[in-house]
Here is the input.
Amino acid sequence: MSRVSQDAVDHSSVWSALAPLLAGQPRVRLSRDGGKSYPQRFERDLTPGLPSYPAAVRIFGKDGTCAAIFLDFDSSVAGVDWVEADVRAAQKWLHSVGARWIEDYSPNGGRHLYVPLARRVAFSEARDLVEALGSRFRSLDKTPHQNILHGCMRTPGSPHKRGGHQMLAMSLSMAYDVARRRNSAEVWETMTKDLAREMAAAHAYRLEQAAPLVSDAPEPAGVEPALGMSRAMQRIAVTGLYEVNRYKSDSEARQGVIAGAAASGMAVTDVQLRMKQGLWPGLASFYARYPARHRAAALQRDWRKAQTFLQRKADQKPMKNSVRISPTSKLSTQAGGLHGRSSSPLTDENEHRFIRSWRNGLRILEHRYRSREGLARRMVLRALGEAAHMSASRYIEFGDRSLAVATGLDHTTVGFHLRALRAEKDPLVTLIEAGRGTKGDLYMLTIPDTVMKAVEDLSWRKGKIHALRPVFRELGLPAAFVYEAVEESPEPMSTMEIVRTTGLSRSAVSEALEILASWNMVSRGNGWSVVAGTSLKTLAEYFGVLEAVAAQIHTYRIQRAQWREWLARNANVVQLMPAPDDDYPWEDFEGPPDEMTLAHFAFRAAG
Here is the structure.
């Protein structure tokens, strides 16, 4: 097909006409780093307006199905000539099976083919077909169809990272006709039948390469997965990916997830809600084989099978106490968060009054932290404040790793910021005692004399102080501070009021508000206000950050065990180490000290 001149095309018209018809759901991700990445936090509703940044539409919908097959021929893999040859061969094959397609090209020589489908197809079906085509065409990038959560691609009209736009290789009227009169179910069956051998080979390859997932590791003690389900089952429900040497088909994997949900105490309505909200698109994709009107009945049928299976297992062996007992205490901010010295009820009103006054001091002084490092230090201070409230004491004996979980930072970065904070001219924290053995550093919250009068004149701020709530691991620190300011304000706030309150630049505040609004976390009327109906926990689960928090805690638990083992072998602290069966709150203490590394311990132990 002949290419259309850039000058003769209205890119906005191309985008608005085709993007909504090709997207798996009306969402688009923007690239603000020149097309290198399309992060989830920059996802927006898909609108007719042409984005000013490179924009990629989501391929799969909340139900785990796609409305079109996206074939991305990448010139960086084998060069432009190879792309041209592969595209001609792919077009010849599409024509042979009776399919119609839309074609565009990018300024760097890459080419896209889009095959609109009248009947949406499940993630696993689309992935198998694209992987099969990948065995025929070397330059075909299979990855967009291999990720149900993050699979996305630029469509015609989108700005390109090298300048220019994705250009149609056909007229807009012809492309629009293909998008409206989509390929029938019969064409899809012909495509899969013709590729049956390659699809079987791709499936066999996955079986050969299958290895246990990281999520099959033992659950970290004291860290409960969302709703009590195992991390392995949650991963299948979210991604639609499973070990083919464990489950032979989507149906078996689907039944495994349903059984896991039933065993965790969930109700069938909980599962339905998660599928409709798009939290479990992988599980939803397993039901795409059924017509929409029959999917609810299929779920009910699977649920009854799961309950029968679980009841039969319960009858075969005596019931065991499944209550998990852990000495661990945790901050409400995190899924397993910080570990303090005490989990007793907060009763010391004098200490809480001091901590609230300290928070006023933080409000006065935190505007001196404006750089990227400064924002991280603000969050470390908030984590210390939350820990102080939890333990009802201005004295905090929390290790770097606990603060790392609470702030989303690496533990070495937390140690760096703590050293900087306590070395300031008017410090808000003071080191009372350095960590020794299994004990962490002991800090005290401090109100500098220079702001004491101003602190006393300020009224206490209502509500809790939060460390980094999990959702903001994905959305970023500026978004966390902007959301906090809007959330704590009794009245809607203007953008300039948010700038003054947070101490962030206007551009940073505007970008953060755009991100928050795109996820329906804030809305704008007479001013900016929080959308009460949007659950931060639900969004965190959608982004997958609860899994990241659990993995971080699991890693630190292993490191703490290694540290205690090293101490037992090398340090002269036998008299301080209780017997293993003593009632001793191991998880209340942290290590190792900042100046020593686990690699050092391993080498010393090996010697």
